[in-house]
Amino acid sequence: MKKSFIAASLALGLFGASCLGPNKLFNGLTEWNKGFNDNRWVNEAVFLGLNIIPVYGICLWVDYIVLNSIEWWGGENPVK
Predict the structure, then answer these.
(1) Domain segments of the chain: what residues?
(2) pLDDT by residue (tens digit) across 14-60?
(3) How far is CA 20 from CA 24, 72, 76, in A?
(4) Does the global pTM surpass 0.90?
């Protein structure tokens, strides 16, 4: 019991306390999807298509790993 509590505390400390940036690439993709069409069913189909072809996942990963790191170390996010 004590070991599992320590492991859970370490995991929460490592993964729960993080500094995330503005995620401009992911948010830009989301805004593009919202404004793609006036019909919400078309927007939903585009959303599902972008999740099946993992565009959302790739954008989020690139935002987390690459772009937010560049912003952290360089001071400016390359996505405007």
Answers:
(1) 19-74
(2) 555 455 678 889 999 999 999 999 999 999 999 999 999 999 999 99
(3) 11, 9, 14
(4) no
